[in-house]
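Bumping with the actual sequence this time:
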Amino acid sequence: MGVEGKDKARVMDSGAQALSGQLGKTIQRLRKAYHLSLSELAEQSGVAKSIISQIERNETNPTLATIWRLSQALDVSIERVLSVSEDEPFIDKTSRGDTPMLLSDDGKVRLAIIGWIKTVEWLQWYDVHADPGGILESDSHQRGAIECLSVIEGELEVEVGGVTQIAKAGETLRYRCDRPHIVRNTSSSTAHATMVCILKAAVME
């Protein structure tokens, strides 16, 4: 049964609001996954900081051009940014081209963000490839945060609070990441690992 007049307008407004609300949540989760501030995303996208803030709070309906600029800055397709999650299937597939990538400052460590975007505020996980000599330096996460690094190939060294440990293929290092921490590949071969960061872990004594 169709709807007409004011009822149709209400349905359209409701649908637009739902889409806008989901868009704001998606933009915010992606921004946090990249550890970007509003100012940094504004600089990279060319979209004003105030507009991004309004989008994230569901206070405005952005134009398609604005959404495109944000999707380019966040390195995901515009289709994924616009996808509505209410009716998502149980199995969700992300293509390789749609998987956001992070690079270490030296360009030798690559982190593919393979975690679910909805959990990025408390649980993040990455597929890590580190070239020989690669160094990934990270600032402190929130208090009590724990990182788990499981080496699949090669070996990686982790330094936290002046303590250093090495993990080889098949081994896992778990460490507090609520303080500056460094992951290094000191070997002569490429290392491959999975990294999981639990941002709301209980504080370790």
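The tokens above came from a reply further down the thread. The chain has two domains: 5-82, 99-198.
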